[in-house]
Amino acid sequence: MKNIILITHGDLCKGFISAYDVICGGEDILSAIPLYSEDSPETMAEKIKTALQSFKADDFIIIMTDIPAGSTTKSAIPFLYEYKNLYIISGLNLGMLLEIALCPFEGDISETIRHVVEQSKENIQFINDCL
Predict the structure, then answer these.
(1) How many Å apart are CA 77 and CA 43, to the nearest integer?
(2) Strand 60-65 and strand 86-90: pairing?
(3) What would the DSSP string read from start to end of 67-121?
(4) pLDDT class for 28, splitting at 50, 70, 90?
(5) 3-class DSSP state of 40
(6) What is the mean pLDDT of residues 27-54?
(7) pLDDT at 83
(8) What pLDDT, in 10s, does the model give residues 80-112?
(9) What is the pLDDT of residue 26?
(10) Pairing state of beta strands 2-9 and 30-35?
């Protein structure tokens, strides 16, 4: 089973889940871990560890973060060494979340994620230039 954890600064991750629910209906594959100003690296690591431990061992997990070089991503990276079925994507936007959440993930998971990331880059547009 696929599970997606959104980790963002503040409640942005909860907003993404709300938007996803409006478009696709509620699903139990999404969870949110907001980073607040009072959180330390240790408290974030504990939040992530708790979320990861809630999934079955054979599930694959995708963590999506908001800023590639941000503390949300840095908090998640150490878990890549511990969980062989963990994948991290950064630069979260709603289009990418929809693609990842709705994708059936048949075959190579890493290749599918790479494809979605490339597709998401192409979907970012300066609309003034499109007129």
Answers:
(1) 15
(2) parallel
(3) -TTSHHHHHHGGGGGT-TTEEEEES--HHHHHHHHH----S-HHHHHHHHHHHHH
(4) confident
(5) coil
(6) 95
(7) 95
(8) 999 999 999 999 999 999 999 999 998 899 999
(9) 72
(10) parallel
Tell me if 60 sits within 8 A of 109, measured CB to CB: yes
Rounded Cα distance between 125 and 18, Å, is 23
Q: Could you give the CA distance from residue 122 to residue 44 in angstroms, rounded to a whole number?
A: 32
For residue 15, the tally of other CB atoms under 10 A from its CB is 15
How many whole angstroms separate alpha carbon 117 and alpha carbon 64?
11
Mean pLDDT of the chain: 95
The Cα 107–Cα 127 span in angstroms is 35
How far apart are alpha carbons 111 and 114 in whole angstroms? 5
Q: Within 13 Å of residue 25, how many CA atoms lie on the same side as its CB?
A: 1
Cβ–Cβ contacts within 10 Å for residue 107, how many?
Answer: 8
